[in-house]
Amino acid sequence: MGLRQADAVNPEREEKTREAAVRTEQEQVSRVYARLDAERAKAEAALREGPAAGGGAAFQARVESAIATDEAGRRLAQLGGVEHALCFGRIDHRADADGPGDTFYIGRIGLRDEDHEPILIDWRATAARPFYTATPGAPGTLARRRHLHLRHREVVRLDDEVFDLEGLDESERGDIVGEAALLATLRRRRTGRMSDVVATIQEEQDQVIRSGLQGVLVVQGGPGTGKTVAALHRAAYLLYTHRDVLERRGVLVVGPNATFLRYIEQVLPGLGETDVALATVGELYPGLKATATETPAVTVIKGGRRMAGLVEAAVLDRQRAPAGGLRIEVEGLTLVVDAEQCEQIRDRARGMRLPHNVQRRRFVHDMLEALAVNRAEQYERIMDEPLEEIAKSGGLPDWLQELIDEAEDEPLLDETDLRLAKEALWQDPDVQEALNALWPELTPQQLLTELYASPETLARLGAQVGISDCALLHRRPRSPWTIPDVPLLDEAAELLGRDDSADKARQRAAEAARAEEERYAQEVIEAVGTTNLLSARDVTSAGELADRHHDDGPYRTTAQRAMADREWAYGHVIVDEAQELSEMAWRTVMRRVPTRSMTVVGDIAQTGSAAGASSWGQMLDHYVPGRWREQRLLVNYRTPAAIMRVAADVLAAVAPDQTPPEPVRDDGPPPAALALPVGELPSLVGSELSLITGGEGIGGAFKEGRLAVIASAARHNAVLAALPDAAAGATPEALDSSVVVLTCEEAKGLEFDSVIVVDPSGILAESPKGGQDLYVAMTRATRRLTIVHANDLPPLLSALE
Ligand SMILES: Nc1ncnc2c1ncn2[C@@H]1O[C@H](COP(=O)(O)OP(=O)(O)OP(=O)(O)O)[C@@H](O)[C@H]1O
């Protein structure tokens, strides 16, 4: 770990030097906060001024002032997020022949003083890197690394790691103080929200964080290895380093459920990044927030790649050429398009290789034309009949016979006639109904609803694509959309597309106006240059500027715009708990990031979903064959060694090829097993709670100290009934309660000071992949673990007997 405690020399002397060091650091910290306040005041003043009113000739001035206001708002949000522990570190480089080494203060953001001299270095800057990478074995040019612990704005403690005593100034040799910052951080009570670890990032995590933007990086690691926290720091780092690309295209973090997203939502703002999109798979289809789940059997079917074939077959099934041809009564005539022609028209439309709703225009167009021609032919026959009678009796003069012969060689309808005839036919409701039945305009929701509602279609199309138990997908219309439905809706949206001809016409009209705005915006960039509020990195182009300020409602952040647009291409996507994603979910995620710049975070040993991954290659080789890189995190920062020893037995039984991570903590009591009826849970919960929070009762919302009861599905309701005051389920509010009852699935990614696992045998029996769920449940604990069973402790927990 590279942590070294300073030797205690003389307690009294050490106390004095400690106090002096704290005083010195306090001066620096106060300067940094004063600077933060000044920056805030400046942003607030800009915000108060607000955008100038007016129009017409004042447009340039309005754009300029609106930009300043937007930027001030963003800056204020950024400055607001970094108040806590703004400055957390200091590095001292070794003195050398040229004089004393440089000293840098490291913080959440970079700040400069009035003379533009840096007084705080952004943790992501290259100059800050030694703070994270120096070890006693490889200190580089560092003489010392110091952690500053603040309470509000006050320096309360310093932790030093001295790499080179000789390299420090004479005056500083004495003030070595402290305790290892990492372990102190790890021992703190949980608050229901993940904190950033910017002050204590470890070297293996630093490599993940600073790995290049391009390509797919897989971060594989056991429970508590800091995969999530490292991935979030990586998002902040990439935004800092590739601001120009990523601020425009956006960064998306995909997490397993809404509770988890709430759990991590403070991390990025705390690192000065407020514009990152967070979504579950159930939210990747704009306009929908699917939370319902499916049975394991249906989850497997809906998550499998064959579903892509089924959705495609369902679309093709809605493009019909009737076996007997098309016959419609229109104004007393029976118009006919024969079977062969119907088939040709359908195949011609399909041949366009465009989405269904776009091809439909061609299909309708060609069908109307066929009907119009058929009608003209019928009219002609009617008109010609009397003349033919006369002709047969030899009663037509030669000039008239010649005219008739010439007309026969000409097309029945010229271009204008044809257009008018088609328009007239399209006005006929029967024609519309008939053509809509053959090739309907469809939304993804309609397509899937109608597919699920028809056992016959499911059976027929299921047989076509090799899904034998497709009947399980049958369900009534208006059933709620489930999480596994979302990738299918997305798949359908790809195949159906939208007939956007009306939008395009509007767009063309708007383009002229926008060109004018861009011209103004370009002038603004040239005129304003790089002031404090409008820097070159914040505004990447005149196009973006015009986007932000055209008159379409209030300004939306990149994340907001991206989340509302199914076809948005993100600059980088981070997928957490990625082992849970099904093959179909991967297809959806990959569509959001055509450049394949991704961070995939997870643990194959924790796969709980029946449709989830059993190897990274299984999911990724399809998209980036041989082109993804893997980085492993091996140290467990969450769960103490005594708990990990028992969890490791579970892992060895359910996933013998996986190695549990090495715990860094060796504190806390060993885990316990209790044969206890569920009815007695309240007293156990009460005593555990008092141990982790210092007393009070269930139902309170302590600021610190969290307990989870993680139960099998079979015992879940009984546990809820026994603990009526506890929060229940994966609701975002559950994180604010000191006691929460969860299923294993809901507990994924979270952590608690004390965990009570109820009914381990049930959990093992229910776990679709084996016993991974039990391993997940046990490794949520940061301090205490109790296993509650009904005289049936499974053999793989025998160490607890
Ligand atoms: N460098 C670090 N400094 C301080 N705390 C850390 C560090 N790395 C990880 N932690 C803490 O360890 C705990 C586990 O981290 P995290 O949730 O990111 O792990 P994980 O690998 O995603 O776990 P799981 O797979 O079980 O969800 C968190 O409380 C996190 O803050």
UniProtKB/TrEMBL annotation:
InterPro entries: DNA_helicase_UvrD/REP, P-loop_NTPase, UvrD-like_ATP-bd, UvrD-like_helicase_C. ATP binds at G221, G222, P223, G224, T225, G226, K227, T228. Residues 200-640 form the UvrD-like helicase ATP-binding domain. It holds the Pfam family UvrD_C_2. It comes from the Bacteria. Coiled coil: none annotated. The keyword Nucleus does not apply. Residues 10-24 have a biased composition (Basic and acidic residues). Keywords: ATP-binding, Helicase, Hydrolase, Nucleotide-binding. GO terms for molecular function: 3'-5' DNA helicase activity; ATP binding; DNA binding; hydrolase activity. Transmembrane segments: none annotated. GO terms for cellular component: cytosol. One of its GO terms (biological process) is recombinational repair. Residues 1-24 are annotated as: Disordered. SUPFAM superfamilies: P-loop containing nucleoside triphosphate hydrolases (SSF52540). This is Helicase. It comes from Actinomadura darangshiensis.
